[in-house]
Amino acid sequence: MKRVLTYGTFDTLHYGHIRLLQRARALGDYLIVGLSTDAFNSIKNKQAFHSWEERKAHLEALRYVDLVIPENDWDQKRADVTLYHVDVFTMGSDWEGEFDFISDLCEVTYLPRTDSISSTMIRGGLDTSKS
Ligand code: C2G
């Protein structure tokens, strides 16, 4: 069983996220997603539209995601890789190189980011729909 790990906020889940998760899952047999908590999002200066519980439910509805764990801080990745016996760590290419420091523990790979879609774009639509 090849276990894959990735992290993110995954707010207003869209096809960019889904393509990332689909490709991440294809790197192995089991995909774990570290989902940024609302508290960690504030550290990342991100304000998610959906709560952690809602974002978790969206991910759990996807066939590509096998387990969702909380991402509470920047420093948990090495411990998570060990705790969950991770073989492959992956992120979108906007993080290229940022997590190479765990390559002594597992394979680290970056997947091309999907352009032309972002939660910010969607949020823009949601916010105007409120007015
Ligand atoms: N992503 C993508 N294409 C997009 C948008 C996002 O491939 N159009 C990828 C990102 O590269 C990331 C994942 O989807 O790998 C989740 O994106 P975000 O929810 O924006 O996550 P981020 O805020 O980058 O958090 O410790 C790592 C951080 O928690 C990553």
Written overview of the protein:
The chain has 131 residues and is α/β, with parallel strands linked by helices. It has five helices and five strands; from the N terminus they run βαβααβαββα. The chain has a five-stranded parallel sheet. It is globular. The structure holds [cytidine-5'-phosphate] glycerylphosphoric acid ester. [cytidine-5'-phosphate] glycerylphosphoric acid ester (C2G) binds at residues 7-10, 16-17, 20, 36, 44, 46, 71, 91-92, 94-95, 113-114, 117-118.
In terms of topology, how is this protein built?
Elements: E1 3-8, H1 15-25, E2 30-36, H2 38-43, H3 52-60, E3 67-71, H4 77-83, E4 88-92, E5 107-111, H5 119-130
Parallel strand pairs: 1-2, 1-4, 2-3, 4-5
[cytidine-5'-phosphate] glycerylphosphoric acid ester is lined by residues 7-10, 16-17, 20, 36, 44, 46, 71, 91-92, 94-95, 113-114, 117-118.
Bound compounds: [cytidine-5'-phosphate] glycerylphosphoric acid ester
**Major β-sheet profile:** 5 strands, parallel
Order of helices and strands: EHEHHEHEEH
Rough shape?
globular
Strand order of the largest sheet: 3-2-1-4-5
Query: How many alpha or pi helices?
Result: 5
Structural class: alpha/beta
Task: Please count the beta strands (DSSP E, at least 2 residues each).
Answer: 5
Strand content: 15-25%
pLDDT averaged residue by residue: 94
**Residue share in helix:** 25-40%
End-to-end separation in angstroms reads 49 Å
Poorly predicted runs of 5 or more residues = none
The radius of gyration computed from the alpha-carbon positions, rounded to a whole number of angstroms, is 14 Å
